Amino acid sequence: MKGEGRSKEPPDAGEVTGKRPKRKCLQWHPLLSKKALDFSEEEEEEDEEELEKVSVFDEEVEEDSNEQRARRPMNAFLLFCKRHRSLVRQEHPRLDNRGATKILADWWAVLEPKEKQKYTDMAKEYKDAFMKANPGYKWCPTTSKPVKSPSCQPLSNPRKKVWSFPSNSSKDSTTAKKVPKTDSMPQLNFAMADPTKMGGLSMLLLAGEHALTNREVDKQYKLVKKMGNSNNVIVCSQSSLSMAPEGKPCRQSALFQLAEVRYLSLGSQNMCVKKKIKKKEVARSNDSSDIPGSTKKVIKKYNHAECPHLDSIFSTIEAVAKGVWKEKPKKKLQSSPSGGNSCLPKKKSKPKVKTCVKDKVIHEDSEQCGLYSSTKVEMKEDMTDVSPTSEAEETHLGSTDLQSTMAGPHHSPCTHSPVKPKEEAKGKERQTEVTCESNPENRGSRKSERSCKGALYKTLVSEGMLTSLRANIDRGKRGVFRASDHDANWSDDSWTVPLVGPNNPKKLKKSKSKDESSQGLGKLEEEFEKKFNSLPQYSPMTFDKKGVAVAKKKKTESSTLQEEASKVGKGKSKIKDFSTQLTQCSFKPPHPSHPWTNLHLFIESYFPHLWLVHHDSTMQNSTSKTKSCAPVAIMCPDVQGTTSMEMLVGSQKRKARKTKITHLVRTADGSVSPAEGKDMNQEQDKKPLPQQNLCNEKGCYSNPTSEEAERITVSQELPAFFSLAALAEVAAMENVHR
DNA sequence: ATGAATGAAAC
DNA sequence: GTTTCATTCAT
């Protein structure tokens, strides 16, 4: 087992294709170098390393430090997304994230530079801080080959450095060298601690995060291990909690505090480590499942981290222990309990795993901590001690935190106790500016959670709390509002909405999980949150207006269209595959008899943002032209980006990846069908499809024949734009008949 | 795990 | 130019 991990390494390192390393690479390095215990291959950067290290305790090889890989800082757009996504969701509850992202992109596009400024500034600050904290950080870790940067590599092992965490990767030239052996931490801390630089909370955050994650964690783990983890864990969580409140007074000092804490050695408590455990990891750990340590570690992490929510955590842990974690569990069935053992999946066998998961879930429900074997025991311990406290604390903190953190004038609305979301919902109705959204998400320091988010999220989903709840809400709301307005009260509140049923464990859990996140945060995170929250949040209305304005404006300057069209025609055309989008929307084709108006409604409901544009610009076009290519065009930005696309603000700048491109090909029978494959591009280039359904010089689609249209309508497999076109066609025809 | 967007960085 | 990966979270 131990050895195995290593075996993997060679391939990665050895073969450098020249391409950037993929995720795989990430997984690789930490253990390998060391000894890779059982984990042999770690999946992801973060967590594993820690785990492993722990095991190692004696010596930490530098690699340990490396293992952890810091996450890239968010860019302006991402910050914007994070800040506004909830708003978008409020407006369009139906939309899934992808759709929301599109809208966000549109919004972003229409924002004036000035308005973007804050975001870009923050992004920059964030980045700078990050880089300071992580001197040698590479965005894209080089594979085996070190890039040019000196920071990276150690001669001895090129691969080891790959990940480039600052701490270890630190530059050789500077002091870094010693860091690895002794304690890399100190340096980092200091750097961060530097008052002059402290200005950016982001920096603080990063620094703190980073430092903690790497070294601190290791240390903690070690300590814990020695001491007996369960207790430690508890302690940690408590301490962190207690500190939170007190910390608020001085934000700037947060960093310092962290540093202090660390150095005190206190022992373990330092704040929260936020790492997410990847499934793979889990799986691996599982392999080694026999080893109690692994489980423990996991548990610990969670506690510290932002995942206070014990229940979910436990379940996750359990899953991890089993090695099943990754799978999505369906709760419905339960298999025999014994099954648990049987499923130790080293690999991911889906079916089996599922079963296991189910078992787990069930167990939990029934006995909360029904774990298996060794894991079980430990878990219990932790739980007993922790649960009560943590829970109470959580709640408490939850509100407290919010207030202190959110303090911002505008945030007030958000500060509500989790318990009563409803009220807010009412008031909230359109107050986009306030940002309730920040509340749930931000407040929770979602961001930091990123690390654990994946796991947590999965857990939630698996438990059915998240998805189902959300879906239900959506649905319900939809039913009510749907036609009328999209104001949608449905907002983030709904998330909190636990109201649904206090009794219901699921709900509770859910709400809890949120709270937990908030509470779990460290000060640093809080700071970050603050800053983040201070970013302007623009109301949807604003964007709508802008969008319209832009559209109009663009419309006036139609000249560009031509260009685009020609461009497309040249063969550069790459078509995005919208079919997925459509399908995602649980698209239901309107009844053929639907009149145009209905069609519009339909479109609007499914593609709100598109509709927006369409409304404005396209419609007119359609009037003049007999054919309604407008909607189609809208659907297919890249291609006929021409007309309508132009109006669309933003997005579509990027070309679709080759892999994602769907090409239309006329088949022998004359029908059009999507073709996949890389070759398609070439084909397209060679044979311009303008003649086909795509677009003609004017940038308009030729309409499919009615027959074709119908056929298409039936099968949803076809690219969205075709489907829409077909729909439109059908609808139009029907209308005419009437 | 995927994808949807933008953007920064590394190729 | 292309590819990764940052964010979120429904699927």
Keywords:
738 residues; mainly alpha; DNA Binding (I), subunit A; two-stranded antiparallel sheet; 37 helices; 1% strand; disordered N terminus; DNA-binding
Descriptive overview:
There is one protein chain. The protein has about 750 residues and is mostly helical. It has a domain at about 75-130: DNA Binding (I), subunit A (Orthogonal Bundle). The chain is built from 37 helices and 2 strands. A two-stranded antiparallel sheet has the order 1-2. A hairpin with a 5-residue loop joins strand 1 and strand 2. Helix 16 packs parallel to helix 20 (about 375-405). It is globular. Mean pLDDT is about 40; it is low at about 1-65, about 145-265, about 265-520, about 555-655 and about 655-725. It binds a DNA duplex (11 and 11 nucleotides) through helix 5, helix 6, helix 23, helix 24 and helix 30.
Q: Kindly state the number of beta strands.
A: 2
Task: Give the overall shape, derived from the CA principal axes.
Answer: globular
- The fraction of residues in strands falls at under 5%
Full CATH superfamily name of the domain at 76-128: High mobility group box domain
What's the story with the biggest beta sheet?
A: 2 strands, antiparallel
Helix content: 55-70%
CATH architecture of the domain at 76-128: Orthogonal Bundle
By helix and strand content, what is the structural category?
Answer: mainly alpha
pLDDT under 50 segments (min length 5)? 1-67, 143-264, 266-521, 554-653, 655-724
Gyration radius over CA: 27 Å
Question: What is the CATH top level name of the domain at 76-128?
Answer: Mainly Alpha
Mean pLDDT across all amino acids = 42
